[in-house]
Each structure stands twice: as C-alpha cells, then as structure tokens.
Amino acid sequence: FCLLVPAWAQPGRFGSVHATDFLGEPLRIGNQIQLLVDDYAVEDRWKVTRETGSVLKHLRNPVLVQDKPWEEGAGGHPAVIYDDKLKKFRMYYTCFSLSSYFSKQGPSYYMAYAESDDGFNWVKPALEGFPFRGYERTNVINTGPGGKRASAGQVMINPDQSDPKRRYMMVYVGSGLRLAYSADGLHWDTLHEPLL
After folding, report:
1. DSSP 21
2. Tens of pLDDT along 87-134?
3. What are the pLDDT digits (tens) for 71-85?
4. Interior angle at CA 17, CA 11 and CA 19, nearest 5
5. What is the 3-state composition of the chain as percent helix, strand, coil, each rounded to the nearest 5?
6. Are 189 and 181 in contact (CB under 8 A)?
C-alpha cells in the first residue's frame, strides 16, 4: 500500500494552508481567537445548530453627534470601553479640523471623550483643565506630541494593573504609532519614542 501526498501537502506551509489541514490532524490554532462563521475550525456539529442573530439599529442613530464648537469636522474612529470601577461606558473618538488642516494652526486631528451609563445616551463633559482653542473647559483629551496630531486612538484597560498610573493604555497615531498610559483615562502620558 502506498499513499502519495501532493507536494503542497507535505509537512510545512503552503500559503496559509497547513499540511495537517488535509491529513486529519487537529488544527494548530494556538491562542488565536477564531471567528466561527463557517465550518473550517469546527470538527463536529452533532446536535449543534448555527443561528444568525438579528441586529436592531438604535432609533436615535447616530448616538453621538458633533455639537461642540471645537468639533468642526468629521469625527470617527471611536473606541468604547466599559469601566467596571466607574460603572460607565467611556468613548474616545477622533475629531478633524479642516481649518487647522489647511492653515497649519493647531492640530487637525485630536481626540475627545464622552461617557454614558447605558451606551446609548452620551455626555461630553466639560472637563476642568482641558482648554482647547480658547475654550476653558472641553472634552478634548489628547492633541498628540507637541499638540500636532492624535487620531485613531484605541483605548483599553491595561491588563497589567501593577502600576495605578498605568490603569489605562492607548495606542494612537501621532507622528508615528504612539503608546500612552493614564491613571484616570483622561490625563495621558505618551512615551517619548513612537512604537513605529
């Protein structure tokens, strides 16, 4: 008895397909998250049915609108976390200023903050100690290194809770890919050197 295995199924990789995919051995997924939208990573579906959930768009969409004078242009890239200690949803989003983009006066991209008890009704607090463009109290929490740019921020609660000054962490674009830490999720300390 002789089993011929094609060259592309020999031990090793051919593109993103591993030889074990065809030889009946378990998939090697390590600790990677798997999206189960098809049967690729599912060996057996006995007594299992797949159901697609329905999504209902909130009637008052969008749930966050540009209603502050410093939010002059398109906003986007929201990052939302739920803070167990504060019992609040916290949103960090990017604002874009077309006038600053063309005039080169101040940052054209900067990050602002909103919070919610239920994830639907958002409040943009007028934060003490966060002046921006002549306004004493705003919700603008990050303008990047040297006040030049902060955009596309992703905020998370730091899994390493050994340092209370680093309870939150943020990765954002600002003269490169930047990493920042915060004790309260509002006041950020950006590392001097960019990640990329």
Report:
1. H
2. 999 999 999 988 888 888 889 999 999 999 999 999 999 999 999 989
3. 887 678 899 999 999
4. 25
5. 10, 30, 60
6. yes
Reference 106, options 148, 44, 160, 52; nearest CA is: 148
H-state helical runs in 1-79 = 20-23
Listed residue (88, 73, 99, 85) closest to 151, CA to CA: 73
**Two tokens, residue 39:** 């049967």
Residues in CB range of 88: below 8 A, 6 or more apart: 82, 115, 116, 117
CB neighbour burial string for 77-99, b if at least 16 within 10 angstroms, e if fewer = bebebeeeeeebbbbbbbbbbee
3-state secondary structure of 110: strand
With beta carbons less than 8 A apart as the criterion, state whether 91 and 124 touch. no
- DSSP single-letter state for residue 132: B
**Could you tell me the pLDDT band of residue 48, with boundaries at 50, 70 and 90?**
confident
Are 115 and 88 in contact by the 8 Å Cβ rule? The answer is: yes
One-letter amino acid for residue 194 of the chain: P
Distance CA 86, CA 123 (A): 15
Name the strand (E) or helix (H) holding 102.
helix 98-103
The pTM of the full predicted model, rounded to 2 decimals, is 0.72
